[in-house]
Amino acid sequence: MATVRVVVGGAVFDQGRLLAARRSAPPELAGRWELPGGKLEPGESAEQALVRELREELGVETEPLERLAGEWPLKPGYVLQVWTARLVAGEPRPLQDHDELCWLTPDRVDDVDWLEQDRPAVALAARRLAAMDQAPPR
Ligand SMILES: Nc1nc2c([nH]c(=O)n2[C@H]2C[C@H](O)[C@@H](COP(=O)(O)OP(=O)(O)OP(=O)(O)O)O2)c(=O)[nH]1
Questions:
Q1: Which residues form a coiled coil (predicted)?
Q2: 83 belongs to a structural domain
Q3: Residue 29 counted as domain residue
């Protein structure tokens, strides 16, 4: 059986908002919004891959929190797994793969045109974020 490669997406939270990133490439995905992240490299854990990708793509330091239950098919041979993550340092900038970023409150997550394959994870992330906001850590 062919191996399936994992793409790790980050539901990055800060101040009660979720970060969305607009892809600049490839042409079939450009202009659509996604959860920033990328492919797991050999020998890396998903959390390590996520922290590396978010550093490379956005210039920020993040702390993975938890994996959202589920796995979503992407192009053939790839699946998306999503972790929530907390912004630890830096202000995200579209350094690689993206041309625009925006922060969305849970009630406004549908304001951007997400890639179809990201929508279930985005809905889960928004619910998670709304729940966190109602019970902030002491
Ligand atoms: N990062 C990310 N990729 C997604 C999402 N949804 C989705 O269909 N994809 C697709 C786009 C790409 O075909 C693939 C991930 O590739 P990528 O280009 O982000 O990964 P990478 O940074 O590791 O890229 P590279 O090493 O191939 O340059 O998954 C998503 O939410 N986040």
A1: none
A2: yes
A3: yes
